[in-house]
Amino acid sequence: MNADRTMLEITALEKRFDQTEVLKNIDLRVREGEMVFVIGPSGSGKSTMLRCCNRLEEPTSGAIMIDGQRITDIPRRDLDRMRLKVGMVFQGFHLYPHMSVVKNVMLAQTKALKRPAAEAEARALEMLDQVGLRHKADAMPNELSGGQQQRVAIARALALDPKVMLFDEPTSALDPELVGSVLKVMKDLRAKGMTMLVVSHEMAFAREAADRVIFMDGGYVVEQGTPDEVFGNPKSDRLKSFLARVLNTDEDAA
Amino acid sequence: MDAFLNTFFNFEIMAQALPLLLKGAFMTLKLCSVVILCGLIGGLGLALAALSPNKLLKWVSVVWIDFFRAFPPLVLLVFVYSGLPFAGIKMSPFMAVVVAFFLNNSAYFAEVFRAGIKSIPRGQSEAARATGLSTAQAMFHVILPQAVRNVLPDLLSNTVEVVKLTSLASVVSLSELLYSANMARSVTYNASPLVLAAGLYLLVLWPLVRVTSRYQRGLAVN
Ligand SMILES: Nc1ncnc2c1ncn2[C@@H]1O[C@H](COP(=O)(O)OP(=O)(O)OP(=O)(O)O)[C@@H](O)[C@H]1O
Ligand SMILES: [Mg+2]
Fold first, then answer.
1. What kind of membrane protein is this, topologically (chain A) (predicted)?
2. Which of A120, A189, B92, B95 is buried most deeply by CB count within 10 Å?
3. DSSP secondary structure of B164-184
4. ipTM reported for the complex, 2 dp
């Protein structure tokens, strides 16, 4: 692994929904093996930015490079192949409720990647093992806790051997006592060298585990740096007031 | 009292009429199978078209579905059987019934499928697409299985409607169950064959209705 190699690069990204301009000018770079956190107030466009990275949302203009490929230039009919390289984890898990856990992890492997079923199953079990849920392989999603469901969702994405993982508030829908198990899986992933772009409100975790933190507001990247820089020495007023707000509510919650 | 029993529940006449009625019942079953099978396939196709991002396709299929849901099936049948020959399109009674009820029924099935597909949260298809599944793969492996499960009671009650609907085929002299029973009645001057036919309809439909309402209750509980 080359720590200086850029895995994901967003240049002058702009996204408009009809008249509202959500992303105005986003520049951002994630190196191979880095875990980068994106923070910012609600409505600042964090999810939209993330969803542009696998073209669930169509950028209005700008460029996104992933693993050396300019994914913003890919014609629509070739998007499916590109998406195999970009794993995505959603706030609401979105496991397929009509399939067992192991089938959830196998589906895209067999249908999109065209892996033979036996190989897909072996890979699924390996990934479930990695997130600590091999013993739940035959359970149905609704028999799992939220934290377990989210870990299955992570395994489902990992089974396709993505180059980058995108996380959109992976722990926001979880009861506090279940958050830790998901964060642990993310930390393990980072140790294995996975490149990750994470939108999250888990400030303590960002501070401890992120390589860099990016603060977005009003459709721009306002400030970025190491966790110590961003949390310990915020420069812009907007970041200062944002941190004051979220850290306060964190204390209230505690 | 004896006269009543003799007119409506004459077992001797019922026994005489039974072979004819069973032939009619067989025709009814054949009609139902063809109409339901075609209706399901056509309805699914129409529902997918009605949900397609292509504006023209969507618009055409929505109007099509509304039109054939609003059109009275008996009027449609008479039109197909007796009206279309004026345009040079002549069909056997069987074909006319199949065509008319297919048009009617596929529109109903389409509406059921459409509601089912729309009941599945957007996150499901986004999750599927994000793992590299195509639109069609996401539809068939992720959305449809859940959608069908959600609307199973409606699909079943629509099936019940088709069985009832096929009795209208007697107006174009197709010898299905009702037509055969009515024939037997006019030959025997006795209403017992009609009672027997009613019994045969109930024999098929009652279990279906039971299953449907049981399933509906099951869904409400969950
Ligand atoms: N499909 C859409 N159509 C129109 N507007 C949209 C759409 N998706 C998002 N928006 C708008 O874009 C803005 C940014 O939304 P986005 O979900 O990216 O914010 P976010 O930073 O992820 O917020 P949160 O922290 O609440 O998740 C919001 O004002 C939202 O209303
Ligand atoms: Mg968001």
1. Peripheral membrane protein
2. A120
3. HHGGGGGGGT--SHHHHHHHH
4. 0.91
